[in-house]
Every structure is written in structure tokens, then in C-alpha cells.
Amino acid sequence: MNKKQIIIQAFISLFISLVVLLTCFTSTYLISENEAKNSLKEYALTISSLYKDETNNDDLLLRFDNVNNLRITILKNDSNTVILDINNIDNSITSEENRLGEFLNNIDKFYIKSSLTLNSDVLYYVAENNNGYLIRVGQLRSQIINSSIYVLIIGGILLIIINVIYYIYLYFLYKKNFKLLKNEVNKLSDLVTTDPFLYREDGFLALSSLIDDTRKLIIKNIDDLTLEKEKIEYIINVIEEGIIVLNNKKDVILINNFSLKILETKKENIINKSYKFMLFPLSFEEKIKELDKNEENHIDLVIKINGKDYDFVFSKIFVDDKFNKQNENDKNFIYTILINDITYINQTIEMKKEFFQNSSHELKSPLTSIIAYSEMIKDGLLNDDKEIKDANLHIYNSSKRMKDLIQNMLYLSSLENNVIKHEKININVNDLINKIIDDNEIKIKEKNIIVNINKYDDLTLNMEENDADILFRNLILNAINYVLKDNGKIEISIYKDKISIKDNGIGIKKEDIPNIFTRFKRSNEAIKVNSEGNGLGLAIVKHVLIKYNYKIEVYSELNKGSEFIITF
Hints:
Helix content is about 50%, strand content about 20%. The protein contains 14 helices and 17 strands. It has helices spanning about 5-50, 55-65, 100-105, 140-190, 205-240, 255-265, 280-295, 345-380, 385-415, 430-440, 440-445, 465-480, 525-530, 535-550, and strands at about 70-75, 80-85, 110-115, 120-130, 135-140, 240-245, 250-255, 300-305, 310-320, 330-340, 425-430, 450-455, 460-465, 490-495, 500-505, 550-555, 560-565. It has a 5-stranded antiparallel β-sheet, sandwiched between helices. It has a 5-stranded antiparallel β-sheet with strand order 7-6-10-9-8, sandwiched between helices. Strands 12-14-15-17-16 form a 5-stranded mixed β-sheet, with helices on one face. About 15% of the residues are buried.
């Protein structure tokens, strides 16, 4: 930038200032005129409501005679004679003009007229009251534009003076400081380029180019930071663990989706607000106070929310905040709250307790029987061959029951932990079911059960052979065990993508259906019909279905039978 450019800019600035000044003048005039109109209308309406007849003349004179620049003229709406004329500048001047016609033509209107009596343009407004009087209120236009003229004159002088002073100052300031500016340009260029001659042009052209390049560099860095922020937010939000961060004022500065889901709220309802907006119980606040007081690394709190158990781990972490430090000894810190859903862990612990209790109970019965009969044989209490043979049969059956129970428990454990894996093969479901029916032919004949197999389509499953066998064997054995003797009927229907096993057995109570796949859970009705069952069959069925992502539906009614439908 040189002297010529400064002068050109000065004239441009002066031109703009004049435009602004004229705009201000016009705006001031319009505002003044509008205010004058509003005032005239208010005066006219006020006088209209007050004026009843000529007896009110003195009152109006007292009220308005001293109001500057306000002229009031009152006529009867059927006469050209002036009843009252207030603030007439020169009362010696008379006029023969048709005032009545003028008043009647301009009722409720504003109009401008050159007054013969005042020898000046006047802004008038006419109103008519309910008593038949026409009231005209006027004000000199010269009074309206006076303030605008003052703005024009004074503002123009001030703007010219200010512009001249400013550009003189700018010119000398430019000469004095441009060397400093060039030094700063050189420093800034180091951030953008290693070429010392890239921004060597004199003046603001080099600065403009440099700033543009710096802007591009900043935008690129911002984009990179935004991308990194989005990555971090994505990682935080996909973590199946709650994360909440509070600043040292205990306002929430970070919260992920897992935490919002637990709180059943939206991010905008919590972020940058006090942690108390999270509406946790009082124990939550007590833990944070305890963290402040003892300055421990971690404090745990288990809270039950909507029937689930959550473990809240509170931590206080000191961070290095260079920008907010008041002095070297200041320590800034944040609070972190990690939330873990421990419902499954607690349920697993309870299930393990229940499992060991139930398995101990189930093993105790056959083991007691084995020990009892063995001691009777050992002590010679059984001498008869038939008695000894019966005792051995009891020992064998109890041992077999205990072996089956242990095998089922081990198999169920292997399914849960996915320990044992065999090669998958294509299983023909129709052939497998016929084999299971043949294996149980003796029991079916003993109970006189009718078994119908309806094959509507071929069904082949890619499964481990043992899994397929135990899945269908348990379901079919359940149907055989829980239908009544001489009246039992089992219907197995095979479709392309599902199989139905239906019986007319004892059925299941509606409230017991959700528990039938829980290990060792057996209804009273099931125990009465089959006392030797161990309650693991359907639990194994459930875990086989989970392993292969199959679905099962149960329809049952007490004393009418049950239907199990597996969809593949």
C-alpha cells in the first residue's frame, strides 16, 4: 500500500460516509415526521373526546395554548366559521378560504398545506367527534425537519474531520509499523513454507497471500482434528461400558451412548451441566464427596437401575492444563465414571450357586440308594438270591441315573463354554427321528403310545452329529415321558425349515413355561409323572439351539398337551 492508495481509500471512505450521513438524515426526517403524525393524531383524538361545545374553549386554551408549534382549529361540521383557533401566530391575518370543505375532505387524514395565516407549510390532521365538531391539529413542517438538518450539518462536519484525522494517522502509522509487519509476515511464513523468498513482495499483497495459505493450513488441521474427534467419539460410543467425564466443577463434559441409554435421556439434557442433572440417588453424590475427601484412586458403587445391576467406578485424575493454571502449584483434575453392567455376572453367580445346590441334591438321591443297598449286601442283611438280585438292580439303576446326570451336566457345561467341537455333517432329520423312535420302541409299546410322523418336505441340517441327536432325542423323550399310558399320542411334523413335536400329555402351566429351559427346573406335575427326570434335558436343548442360532416356540396347556416348534 502506498500514498496514492491511501488517498484513494480516503475519498472512497468519505463518499461512503456521505452516503451514510444522507441515509441518517433521511431516516431522521422520516422518524421525525412519523413521530409528528402520531403526536398530531393523539392530540386530535384527545381534543375530540374532550370537546363538547363552545363552553370547553377556555379549558382547551388552558391545556394547549402553551404547547409549542401546535396549532388547533375547531369548526362546526355545518359552518365555515372558526369556533376556536389556538396558537395562531398572526391573528390579524384573515382568510376567506373554504375551511369547512377542506376539513370535511380530510377527516382522519394527514395532509400538508401552505398556511395563509402562518405563511409556512403545515402538517395537518383532522378528526370529527360525536358532537359534530371538526378538530384540525397542525404543526409547522420546518419544525419537523429542523432536527434532520442539525444531524446533516453537524454529522457531516464531524465525519469529514474524523476521516481526515484517521487517514493522516493511518498514513504515518503505516510508515512506522510496516517494518514490524514484515517481520511478523516472515515469522508466520515459517509455519507455512520453508522457502524464504515465497512471500517477498512488499506491502499487504504478501500478507494476503500468506494469510490465505495459513487459513488453508488451519482448515486442514481442523479437518484432521475433527476426524480424530469423530474416531474417538465412535470408539467411545461403541464400547459396551458407560463412560462419563466431569470437569473440576463437576459438570459433565463427556458421556457416551451406553451411559445415556442407562439414564434414559438425551445428550443435550446433560452435557455441560452439573452431574446432578443425571438424577442419580444420593449415594452417588456421597461417593464423589468421599473421593474428594480421601483422594483415593478408585471408589466403587453398585446401583440397581430398571432391574439391572451396574457397577460405577469413580476416579479422580489430575491432568496438566497449561492454559487454566493460575500459578505453578495449581493442579487441575477431572472425574471419570466407568459403568459396567454386572447383572449377568450376578445372575451367573446365583445360577452357579443354584446349580451346585441342585446338582448336589440330584446326585445325593441315587448315591444314597447305592450306599444303602451296598451296605445291606455287605452286612448280610439280604440272604435271598432274589433280594440280592433286586438290590443289585437298584444299585445299577441308581448308578446309571447318576452317570446320565453327570454326563448331561458335563455336556451342558461344554455347550455353555463351547469347549467340545466336532466336524459338522449334513443330518437327515427324518432318518434321525425314525432312529430315535426305534431306540425307544419298548417304552412306546409299554405305554401304548401312538406316534405319527408327517413328512411334508425334506429337512437336512448341517450340525455336529451328537448335537443333532441330543436335541431331537431330548424333545421326543420329553413327549414320551409326559404322555399318559394307553392314551398317549405324539405327532411329529417335518417341514422344509421347521419341525413340530406335539403331544397330548400333561401340559405345562402358563406361568411355568418361561422356566422350562432353566436347569433343574421341573413342575410339580412333571415330577409326579416322571420322578427320575433330572431337569437338564430342556436346558441342553436351549444351549444347542443357541449354538446354531435356531429358534424355538412353546405352546402348552395344562392337561391338554404341548407343542414344541423349532425353526431353522
